[in-house]
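Handout, section B. The chain below has 94 residues.
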Amino acid sequence: MKITDAQLHALILNAHLATDHELSEIQKYATTINSTFAEALTQKNVLTDEQLGRLYAKFASVPFINLSASTIADDVFRIVPNKFAKLHKLMPFG
C-alpha cells in the first residue's frame, strides 16, 4: 500500500511529531535534493526509521514489528525462496 506525501504529512501532524511549518520545509528540501519526503524526514532527523515505520503500519492498519533486536534462524529464511522474497519484498521470521 502506497502512502502519499500528503497522507504522511497528515499522519505526522496528527501524531504531533512535527509542525506544519517544519514539514513544509522538509518537503522543499526533498524537492531540492530530488529525494522522497520520507527520506528527507529521516535525513533531517525529524523522524527515525522506526517512527516512520510505525506511521506506515498505523496507516495500513497492520501491527508494527521491530526486528532489529531479533535473531532469525537460518532455517526460517529457507521457508521462502530468495527470489520470491525479493520480488515480493517480504521476510519470513519465526
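Note. The helical segments are 5-14, 20-32, 37-43, 49-60, 74-77, 82-88. Compare this with the example in section A.
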